[in-house]
Amino acid sequence: MVIQTNDNKFSATTWIVDPSAGKGTHTTIQAAINTAQSKDVIVIHPGKYSENITLKAGVSIIGLADNLSFNNEDSSVNLAGSITANYTGQATVERIHISTDTANCFVINGANNTFLKVIRCEAQSSASSLLIANSTGNSIIQIEDSSLRPQNTTAVPFAISGNSQVFVTRSRITPPSVIPIASTISSGSIDISYSECNIPFTTSGTGSITATHSLFSFGSTQFVINGTTASVFFMSQISNTGNTPLLTVGTGATATLRVVNLLGNANPLVSGAGTCTYDLVTSGTGIGTISATTSTGFVQRSGGISFDGGTTYLRNYQEGTWMPVVTFGGTSTGITYGTQSGSYTRIGNIFFYAIDIQLSSKGTATGNMTVSTPTGFNYLNAPEGASVTSWSNFSLDSNVISLGGTFLPIDIGIGLYHLYNGGSPQQLDNTNFNNNSRFRIVSHIFLSS
Q1: Where do the domains of the chain lie?
Q2: Non-local CB neighbours of 269 within 8 Å, separated by 6+ positions
Q3: Are 404 and 425 in contact (CB under 8 A)?
Q4: d(C-alpha 357, C-alpha 92), whole Å
Q5: How many whole angstroms separate alpha carbon 195 and alpha carbon 99?
Q6: pTM for the complete prediction?
Q7: Which of 94, 227, 251, 358 could form a disulfide with 338 if both were Cys (CB 3.0 to 4.6 A apart)?
Q8: Whole-Å CA distances, 47 to 20, 41, 176
Q9: Does CATH number 2.160.20 belong to domain 2-306?
C-alpha cells in the first residue's frame, strides 16, 4: 500500500508499517525508512516493533496511536529498541513509545548537521541512557510534549557533548522509582522550558544549562555547574528533599538565577567557589543562604529580603501616602487647605515621612494643634522629635527662635511646638495659626515592629 499525493516529481509518499503482513507496505520500521525518500511520511500502526532504527533526512515517522501507554500494545506504537540519527537535514519522530533494555533510546552522533524533532513520544531505558548526543556537527535535538523516564541507576539519562544542542519543551523527565546519576553536559547545551524535571545535571568544559518556566525536584544536589559557559535559570523552581545544596557553582563557573524559587533544607542552598548572580530569588520559609564565592543580587522569602545571599534580611519595606489632617483641640471644624499631602517610606523598622500643609482657612476649632499620621503602624517609641524644615505665616511671640514637632503617643499625631530663647517649648494652638499658615515636616521615627 503506497499513497502518492500527486504525480509530479516533487510528490511525497506515505508508507504504512504494520506488524502483520499484508496490512501495510512494510512490517518493520527500518524497512520503510530504507525505502522512503526525503519528504516521505511513514505511518506506523499500533503494535510492538523489536528493532533498532537509523533515521533518514527528510523522513517523518508518525505513530498511529489511540493513546500513550507503554502497557497497551494494541493501541499504541511500541519500539523495543533504539533510534540513531547521524544524517544531514531534519527528521521527525512522533507518537512513538521507545523502550530498551540493552541500548540508548536516542543516539545522535557523527559529524553531520543533524536536526531531530521528537514530538509526543515516551522513552524509557532500563539499561542505558535516554539520550546520547555527541555529534561533532551542529546538531539540534528538539523534544516537545514528551515523557522521558530513566530507569537505570548507573547510566546517565542525558550525555551531551560535541556541538549538540538539546531543547526540551512542555515535557516531563521523571524516573518512576530509581534515582539516576547526574546527566552530563561537557560541551554543547541543554535548554529546558515549561517542563518538569526530576533528574540532576552536571556541566563541565563549555557545557551549559538554560532553564525557563520549569520545575526541578530531586533528592540531593540538583545542579553542579562547572562549565565555563554560564548557565541560566529563569522563572523556575528548584527543590530537593535532602540536606545538600540545590546548586553548586564550581571555580570559574557562573550561574544566573532570575525570578527563581529555591526550596530545600540545606544551608547554603547555593554553594561553591564560582559566581552566582541572582535577582528576585525566593526561598520559601527556609533558612538557606546563597554563598557562592562571588554572589550579587537579593533573596526574598517570607521573612524578608536579603541582599547578601541570605545572611541578613530586610523584613519590611513599604511606601505610601496619606492625607494629613490638622486639628485644634481634637476637631477640625472649618479647616480648609491649599496644600495637603503626606508620604512615607518604611525600611525595616525605620519610618521616614514628609508632611506639607498650606491652610486656606484655619476654621473655628480651638485648642492645641496636632496633624495626623498614617494609621496601621506601631509608633510605640513616641513621643519622639519631628523636624519642621520650613514654616511661614504664623502668629508667634518675638522671642520664638524656631518651630519643632513631637511625635505624640500612638494615634494622636504630631504636635507643633515653638521654642523660646532660653525657655521651654510650648505646643502651638489655634491662636498661633492664620488662614494662610504653612509648614513642612521631613523626619523619621523608629517603629516597635
Answers
A1: 2-306, 318-446
A2: 245, 246, 247, 262, 283, 286, 288, 289, 290, 310
A3: yes
A4: 72
A5: 21
A6: 0.69
A7: 358
A8: 9, 18, 23
A9: yes
